[in-house]
Design a protein that fits this description.
The chain is mostly beta strands. It is built from four helices and 43 strands. The protein has five domains: 90 residues, Immunoglobulin-like, CATH 2.60.40; 185 residues, Lysozyme-like; 57 residues; 98 residues, Jelly Rolls (Sandwich), CATH 2.60.120.380; 98 residues, Sandwich (Jelly Rolls).
Length: 570
């Protein structure tokens, strides 16, 4: 144990390494993180420009209460037994000046009694019970917090008078709960329930504390500690006054190995501190990452999120055979992308192409619709709406053809996790070749078919696992000969071993709307041709020794065939 003295402030420091589960760290550096229950706030991705208001509240707890009462209420998952959302605030400021954060600034606390204001505000509760007066420590802590919020978000340091605008985006500032307009009658304040807090709030004194320097963080007693870490593990410092009840004292970090330093304000005149080691969060971190392969990945975006599907990595837990889907969120304030979620599908093997993706592994089993309807057979359908299911293994590639549809119809496809893969409307009439569905997860896939703009729809349906042919291994001088069925993207696979510096030659090109693609063992396309019946040889320069895959793909609705000789030179 080490004791340090700074004036009259005595700090006892204990370093303990533990496994512990906790939630996100606080935003405000001077706050203690004590998360509210997720039933009592809304998870969101608010940015600096989304927050326009700071709403001042008082807790108005029962006589004899302390600062834990409101905190425990916000942590209660059963505030409302009728299933409606509970209440919460982003921050609670105690009478001793300590600041507790319970909801992340990016998320929506339910505090104002007006959801439009909830969406664009930060709520701050101040401990009050009986007829207690405010302490200077509480007022100063509130001013420091509000000053920090003003500096970080789109909130000016002004105090509008009267009931605020019915439209929260029309103005901004620092107001009391009693100034939040009732969403059903904007002439009334206090939100939906007509709240009157902050009760007996000394606004002149409070406003007087806001000078230019108050909007900056002032110096506080603080501790800095260096902790040895392991790659991917999480670390956080906790404090306690009794060595029994521990509260977060620092932000949580994900380490990359070596020593990591923590700086955090002291929370009590005499407190104990310990650093805790937490297991890696595999939802947002790849441990022991040594290599990343993005060449076959597919990039998509929605809102402020970006998803990279098909990234391959080498790490402690994963190899290039595993399919990685990484979702990033754009932090507009810092102008950087932060990893929000990782999904890993193991043992997929290499894939070739991006849209569509072709599996190089063999998954040749036959598929059944609703456990009984067979592949490559016409199935008449007449329905007002139905759902059929297909159980697939990783590597299956489901292709569906419909024809003679009497009306437009919608197709919604979901994977075994319930995630929607496709949602589109198909026109009536003749043949419709639907986009193939790649099975990256094993399990039951659902296909919802319902008429669009009509009471019912009748049509004929047939389907196929496009990956129904085993890979054929060939040598130099062999003849490749293959017929493909009348399914969009039906394909056949051939494997040939080649050495760096060799040249792979094809005696002839494929026919019209047919494609020959050559991929290496990682799935990277090294040569591709869409043919038109020419006899001009196709040539691929081999850069690395290993196996290469030749894919012959049908991109027409008719059956096709291709025959050629492949040679390696020298």
């Amino acid at each position: 144990m080490r004791t340090e003295s700074s004036g009259r402030c005595v700090l006892n420091f204990i370093l303990v390494l533990l496994f512990h589960s906790a939630a996100h760290a606080q935003d405000y550096p001077g706050a203690i993180w004590n998360p509210a229950n997720t039933n009592n706030y809304g998870v969101a991705s608010r940015t600096a420009t989304s927050i326009r208001w700071i709403v001042i509240h008082t807790t108005e707890d029962a006589p004899g209460s302390d600062c834990s009462v409101s905190q425990n209420w916000f942590k209660n998952p059963d505030q409302n037994t009728n299933g409606t959302p509970g209440t919460s605030a982003h921050y609670v400021i105690c009478r001793d000046g300590s600041v507790v954060q319970m909801v992340r600034d990016k998320d929506i606390a339910f505090h104002a009694g007006n959801f439009a204001y909830n969406q664009q505000s930060i709520g701050i509760e101040h401990e009050r019970h009986d007829a207690s007066n405010w302490t200077e420590a509480q007022f100063n802590a509130s001013v420091q917090l509000v000053g920090w919020l003003v500096a970080h978000y789109s909130v000016p340091g002004i105090f509008p008078s009267g009931i605020a605008s019915a439209d929260p985006s029309a103005a901004s500032g620092i107001i009391g709960h009693d100034q939040v307009p009732n969403p059903t009658n904007s002439a009334l304040g206090g939100g939906l329930h007509g709240k009157s807090d902050p009760v007996n709030w000394d606004w002149p004194h409070y406003r007087g504390l806001f000078t230019g320097s108050n909007f900056l963080l002032t110096a506080q007693h603080a501790v800095q500690v260096s902790v040895p870490t392991r790659d991917g593990y999480q670390y956080q410092v906790f404090s306690s006054t009794d060595l029994t009840n521990w509260q977060p004292a620092s932000a949580r970090i994900t380490a990359c190995g070596g020593n990591e330093s923590f700086s955090f304000p002291t929370t009590n005149a005499k407190a104990f501190y310990r650093a805790q080691e937490l297991p890696p969060d595999l939802r947002t971190h790849i441990v022991g990452l040594t290599n990343v392969f993005l060449d076959t990945a597919r990039l998509s975006g929605s809102g402020n999120q970006m998803t990279i599907g098909g990234m391959r990595v080498q790490s402690r837990d994963y190899t290039f055979d595993d399919f990685v889907i990484a979702t990033y969120g754009l932090d507009f304030c810092r102008q950087s992308f932060l990893l929000q979620q990782l999904e890993i599908v193991t043992n997929v093997g290499a894939t070739c192409g991006i849209d569509p993706v072709f599996f190089l592994r063999d998954t040749t089993n036959s598929l059944l619709v609703n456990s009984s309807e067979a592949e490559n057979t016409i199935h008449p359908i007449n329905t007002t709406g139905l759902t059929f299911t297909v159980v697939m293994q990783v590597g299956n590639m489901f292709s569906m053809i419909t024809d003679s549809a009497s009306a437009p119809y919608r197709i919604v496809i979901t994977d075994p996790t319930g995630r929607a893969l496709n949602n589109y409307i198909s026109p009536p009439g003749g043949l419709s070749f639907h986009p193939p569905v790649n099975a990256f997860r094993p399990g039951q896939y659902s296909f919802r078919l319902e008429p669009f703009g009509a009471a019912s729809v009748s049509l004929n349906l047939r389907f196929r696992n496009l990956n129904h042919r085993p890979t054929v291994t060939v040598n130099s001088g062999a003849t490749i000969s293959q017929s493909l069925e009348a399914y969009w993207f039906d394909y056949a696979k051939f494997r040939i071993s080649a050495s760096a510096g060799q040249t792979l030659r094809f005696a002839s090109t494929p026919g019209l709307n047919e494609t020959v693609t050559v991929c290496n063992s990682l799935g990277l396309v090294v040569g591709e041709w869409t043919g038109g019946g020419s006899t001009t040889p196709l040539i691929v320069s081999i850069e690395g020794t290993g196996d290469y895959f030749i894919l012959y793909v049908n991109k027409t609705g008719a059956s096709s065939s291709y025959s050629t000789t492949v040679t390696l030179t020298p």
